[in-house]
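Support reply, case 0932

Customer input (verbatim):
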Amino acid sequence: MDILTKKVKGAEDILPADSYKWQFVEDLMREEALNSGFREIRTPVFEHTVLFNRSVGETTDVVQKEMYTFDTKGGESITLRPEGTAGAARAYLEHAIYSDGLPVKVFYQLTCYRYEKAQAGRQREFHQFGMETYGAADAKADAEMICAANSIFERLGLEDIRLELNSIGCKDCRKDYTNALKAYFSDNKEKLCDTCLSRLERNPMRILDCKNESCKQVAANAPVVLDYICPDCSAHFEKVKTFLDAADVEYTVNPTIVRGLDYYTRTVFEFVTDSIGAQGTVCGGGRYDGLIEELGGQPTPALGFAMGIERLMLVMKAQGIELPEPEKCDIYIAPLGDAAEKKAFELLWELRRSSFIAETDIVGRGLRAQMKYANKIGAKYSMVIGDDDLNAGTAKLKNMETGETVDVPLDENFTEAFSDITLQSEKGMLMDLLGSDNMDILRDIIGKTNDGE
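Our regenerated output:
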């Protein structure tokens, strides 16, 4: 295949046959965020590299190995965003969004870029949905964030999604834990990989995330962070669990969930599934009360989560989740002749302005080919307009499923007449669905519809 017609490795096309699924999921996510009082934020696809060094962490694999970084013609180091939090936090500070009042609650849907081995559920260009709250230290904010993510999974009908949570304490109480990890891993140096040896002094919590089998075996017996958190952090964690219980959200405490960067605090959580194998984490989040200060702002409590949409779509496919099909064409108008083409185009836009999905020929097909095309796109109705129809001022509207036809006017009353016909058809389908036993309910529904309710 010629290079001009081949996508770059690690990027995927979302074709029209599948894009409606993405739209459904993204709309549901947006609706969930709006229902919880979050507002959308849109940030640039690239930022100054130093922002990610500070927010993602210079010792992380993302910064050391995976970022798409380049110098501009002006000599600035720029990086394509590898995640969404850094840009949102930068915008929060740069535009002083906090002056509108706290908490600031935002969500985003964006593309991210990481140079890593492309595989199912892990692409070099990927899509991410996230929600973030700034200025709320209360445990209810943690629970609200977790419940919002959980609600998305419930509304999508997903099963086998486990919520696992932990507390990694605050900056002060984590010092003792870090020292305990250093002592433990120092006694097991010979079993650690080279990468983890480099982490030992700078960031020993990162060793707990290592995928090397030998490191995993050593980490399995490492000190547990919950044994080191202070009374305030412990009380905060208990409150989070209390609110999750109140919202009837199931969870398990997993003391192995950690975040290696200093600005992460207290609650951390993941939603995990076994449906797609090793890439089982579909959502991760937690508190990062030190992030805004790390970026030069005043100490500000903050928290959030992000979920990869590609991975979520994989889980849905694995679990056989069916999404609603997109709305099909309401009417296809087939013109015969120049005068009919003009009339068809006029009616087409009258229908579209009234929110109907209407199509007509734009490639010069004959009548038979037009009807074949109308069938192919699943048009509910079709209408042929020729010279005789123009002269009579009426045309025959055909129900493509039943084959029934009815005369409709080709004047200013056409859209209203078409609307009445489709409404009657919908009422008929309701009757078939409900049956005679529920006819009183149906009449009540139809009565309210006719009254404009």
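We compared this against your earlier run and they match. Two observations from our side: The two ends are 57 Å apart (CA to CA). The first helix runs from residue 16 to 35. Please reopen the case if you see a mismatch on your end.
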